[in-house]
Design a protein that fits this description.
The structure holds two protein chains of two kinds. By secondary structure, chain A is mainly alpha-helical. Chain A is 74% helix and 1% strand. Chain A has two domains: 66 residues, no CATH class; 238 residues, MetI-like fold (Orthogonal Bundle), CATH 1.10.3720.10. Chain B contains 15 helices and no strands. The chains are: A mainly alpha, B mainly alpha. Chains A and B meet through α1, α4, α5, α6 and α8 of A and α1, α4, α5, α6 and α10 of B.
Chain lengths: 314, 300
């Protein structure tokens, strides 16, 4: 009894499925260019990391170069400066992460206290701007500005009778110069997210506390700060993926041999080993080491953000 | 009585805070503005005034000398035209690829089952960077060294921008699409006739992001172009303004700057000219991007 009833159902279901597939065919076609570009420029390099385990020769390619196991890693970590480079990278990146949260939160809180909407908008427009300039342009400006004898800052120091400071030439100061200039470039842009969170705080809370006679400071402490806490938490967790991103564009354009001891980072090392010295395998090994650690930190941070906040990446 | 005194004190404190706050934020905003103003002033000043340290925020002995010097430099204009060509090639390509990819990714899973595989395909490169040397090898082995495509193609795909577009498409009311579907519209006409006409803000934001990204990119020019004649402007600037200084020590640099004084005004002029396109699009960008960032980076 069942059989004759079921028999005709099957082709209909099949047809439906085929129709759905046909209707969705354009969707696959639309994705094709992006998928192809990602394949060539992201996935092939991803697999190209096998170079890290080869004595890579460009004329032999990924497939025929000699396999050397972990020799590239052993070689590079045995070099006297590598551990220092790793530490420099971590130190600069970690300070940038901290400054990249503290400064924007602080400025966003102050901006939020501005009563005049017009002034607020003007300040925002101005402080977002440096983010959009390239590090080439900004390096040109900073090299000029920070020059001890010629730069404005040097002249101000001299006018106050202070010793000239070699912001870009003194290995002790260089990492802090990097953190300060990076904060200068991106703090404004960083405030966007916090300002959005601040406008999301329920205004009734402020009104209620006004009636209770709470001062502005008390309101900041007990309403605004707790209101910002979730977003600050999320941004902190997500920043963990950057623990080894010390900022290649910036440092490459501002460093010099006399600050290598504190300013050389993994990315600049990869550049010099790979594209200047043509030690492709060794340079790839350093790059892979960095990518792997960044990936692990990013994966952990996403999992943590997923579990403990309602943040969803996609 | 005491209550009133307390109130008055509180308001006085608040007023003082407000004034200090305005002053502080004005100062912060000025630190973002003044370095550019200083460069501009230097570029319009005479070399002796600059080297004597007399130029702060206003040109001293106003002159167009450095711009005239630039006008006599064909390499600068060559690099400018390479950058423009890169924009004309790269930005439309980036936009087409991104919009076409964002639409399918904005579909619900029940409608487009493969979405869940595709989305991972897009997320993985965001999380794991292939690395400088392998990327360089790919461009080299595909024969793109010294070609304009080496600058346009790898840069044309930006997963963050695709996600921005995707989130915007998802926020468009479903009723609009449903009405179109009843009229028999397929995916292609839904995208072009229903979605895109209402997506102007996000399209503007992403276009401007691509313009700024392409304009500001310098490292790809440095590694993918063997011949300096093919350098885009930012790469040219890098070799002219920045990297010379890297090779010299700080003190040597100062000696040289005193010896070759016209250097500084010329550099300032180049820096300013290289920033002009970004200055030009910024007002338009600024109008749209805050909502875009908030939408893309934090969603509930």
């Amino acid at each position: 009894m069942d059989m004759p009833q079921k028999m005709p159902v099957l082709p209909i279901a099949k047809k439906k499925r085929r129709d759905a597939w046909l209707r969705n065919l354009p969707l696959h076609a639309m994705l094709l260019p992006a998928v192809a570009l990602l394949f060539v420029y992201s996935y092939i390099p991803l697999f190209g990391n096998v170079m890290a385990f080869q004595r890579f020769r460009p004329n032999l390619g990924f497939f025929r170069s000699e396999w050397v196991g972990l020799a590239n890693f052993r070689y590079v970590f045995a070099l006297p400066g590598t551990m220092q480079v790793l530490w420099n990278t971590f130190f600069i990146a970690a300070m940038k992460i901290i400054a990249g949260i503290v400064v924007p939160v602080f400025v966003a809180l102050l901006l939020n206290e501005m009563r005049s909407a017009r002034c607020k908008r003007i300040v925002q427009t101005v402080i977002y701007f440096p983010y959009f300039l390239s590090w080439v342009v900004l390096s040109g400006i900073f090299i000029d500005l920070l020059s001890p004898s010629q730069g404005i800052i040097g002249r101000v120091f001299a006018a106050m009778g202070l010793e000239p400071v070699f912001f870009l030439g003194d290995a002790k100061i260089f990492p802090y110069t990097m953190v300060a200039t990076e904060s200068w470039k991106s703090f404004g842009y960083g405030t966007i997210v916090y300002l959005a969170a601040l406008t999301g705080i329920d205004p009734n809370l402020y009104e209620a506390s006004d009636i209770d006679g709470a001062s502005r400071w008390k309101q900041t402490l007990h309403i605004t700060m707790p209101g910002l806490r979730p977003i600050v938490l999320i941004m902190t967790v997500l920043a963990l993926g950057n623990v080894l991103n010390a900022g290649f564009d910036q440092i490459f354009n501002l460093y010099s041999p006399q600050v290598y001891s504190t300013g050389d980072i993994l990315d600049t090392l990869v550049y010099r080993l790979g594209l200047v010295d043509a030690q492709y395998g060794v340079a790839t090994a350093v790059g892979l080491f960095k990518s792997a650690i960044s990936f692990a930190m990013l994966a952990i941070s996403y999992i943590v953000a997923y579990k403990y906040t309602d943040y969803r990446v996609f | 009585m005491r209550e009133a005194a307390k109130m008055r004190k509180a308001t006085a404190g608040m007023r003082a805070f407000a004034v200090l706050n305005y002053l502080f934020l004005a100062g912060v905003a000025l630190t973002c503005l003044l370095p550019m103003v200083n460069q501009l002033a230097v570029s319009f000043s005479s070399s002796p005034a600059v080297s004597a340290g007399r130029v702060y925020l206003w040109p001293v002995d106003f002159t167009l000398e450095s711009y005239e010097y630039m006008a006599g430099k064909p390499e600068f204009f060559k690099a400018f035209s390479v950058s423009l060509r890169r924009l004309l090639l790269g930005v439309p390509l980036s936009m087409v690829v991104s919009v076409l990819a964002a639409y399918p990714l904005s579909r619900q899973v029940h409608e487009f089952k493969a979405r869940k595989y595709y989305i991972w395909y897009f997320i993985v490169p965001m999380m794991f960077y292939g690395g400088l040397i392998p990327s360089y090898m790919v461009v080299r082995n595909t024969g793109l060294i010294d070609s304009a495509l080496a600058l346009a193609l790898p840069c044309s795909i930006n997963v963050f921008n695709i996600i921005l577009l995707m989130n915007f498409f998802r926020s468009i009311p479903k009723e609009m699409e449903e009405a179109a579907a009843i009229d028999g519209a397929g995916h292609v006409s839904t995208l072009f006739q229903i979605m895109l006409p209402v997506s102007a803000p996000v399209l503007a934001t992403v276009t401007l992001f691509f313009i700024v990204n392409h304009w500001n990119a310098w490292f790809d020019g440095l590694i993918y172009m063997n011949s300096p004649a093919n350098y885009p402007l930012q790469t040219y600037l890098q070799t002219q303004v920045v990297s010379q200084d890297i090779l010299s020590t700080e003190s040597l640099r100062d000696i040289r700057q005193i010896a070759n004084i016209s250097d500084r005004t010329g550099k300032a002029a180049q820096i300013f000219l290289a920033a002009i396109p970004v200055l030009a699009v910024y007002p338009f960008l600024q109008k749209h991007f805050t909502s875009g960032i908030v939408m893309g980076s934090v969603k509930g």
